Amino acid sequence: MASTLGVEHRHPAAFKRAPLLLFLLGITLNQTSVIFDINLSIADVFAFLILMMMILTARMAIPLGPIVYFLVLSILVITMGGFVVPHLLPIEHSLLGVLTDYTKLVTSFGYFLLGVNIVRAGQARIVMRSYIFMAVLIGIIGVVGTTLPSLPRLEFMFHWEIRFSGLMNDPNYFALIQLIAMAFLWHDPDIARRFRYPALMILAASVLASGSKTGLLTLLILLMWRGFHTVFSSPHQGRYVSPYRALLIGVAICLPVLVLIVMLDYSMRMSVAASLDQVPALSRLTPLLLDFETGIEADGSGRDSAWSDALPIIGLFPLAGVGVGTYLGIAAEFSDEPILAHNTYLQIAAEWGLVMTAIFLVWVGILLLRRPAPGTNMSMWHSTRDALLVMLIGSAGISLQNSRVLWLIVGMLLAVHLFSRARQPLQQHPLTQKVKQ
Predict the structure, then answer these.
(1) pTM exceeding the 0.70 threshold for the entire prediction
(2) pLDDT tens digit string along 211-229?
(3) Which of 91, 116, 189, 393 is exposed most, by the fewest CB atoms within 10 A?
């Protein structure tokens, strides 16, 4: 998969405060705000402190393949965005824009390294559980505020006073954040089912409260994936299946059938649409029932124009990309209201070029499809794999190339594979324990 440039631990006592920082990191990953046109999060502070502690105490493991890829990508996007594209195209351009966009890329890679190393240290569950806890807490606020609008509510958590966005700046991104919490929660073996099931229902309901079509479609795919996976992959124990597995078997069978029946029956679609219209946040989902293709573009989604603008931008420099800091300037030549691609794959293809994009996507595909070696913490693999699937599905409707959580998850999933190759069980041990490579 990838070799590592790792070092032995030198100062065992230096990380005694790391569990607190990791807990706070998980909590604050549920928050982002736009300040000076940059998405900032309090999580960046804790991520920086943790990375600095790893570097200063010589505890950092750096995957060799990804660091080489990142260096090559850095040279490419800076050269294209800072020099080549502005020289060849008459666009508005500033070195500050290039620097700002490249800083986002560096930050993303920092979260990737963080993901690798918290799994390596056996402390990933601290981050994941605090992340789940905060997501459920925010989800409760959203569900109550949406279903009981007469009660006092936290207005700053509602986008356009209708769509619940929690502590995120975008309801669509918030929906994916909640779905990642579902993926983490689903596979945590130490959380009792009496807490897990209600929490899963709250998280799913909060996705609906966001009014996100991307979130709804991703939720349905995740539920069907988990249902079929439980049916066909779970080991059979005992004479009868457990109530939990029986329920998921029923969901796996009935959900696709129910969706098909609703979509084929016009009167039923109208009835469901009328019911959704009673709740303002859910009313955004009704176009999906009336006309799916039109519904994807309706109510300000603007994805058709965003996608159509991305394609000619990719065509300008298909192999090398347009680099960082230039996309919106070029998009202004194709549209009166230039916006990002609303699609991660189109966005990175335009900025990184098709060659680097193809290498990255093939590598991610290998991470998803390859089963880790025996002795691996399989619950960690299932959690990170399903969370990455959520982000990849959501990436079709949102530009997530600079998402902190996405890169953290990619790093965690790589670490599961990377250190299992050395038959190193990824168990939850103190950070002061050595990790053999």
Answers:
(1) yes
(2) 888 898 899 888 888 877 7
(3) 189
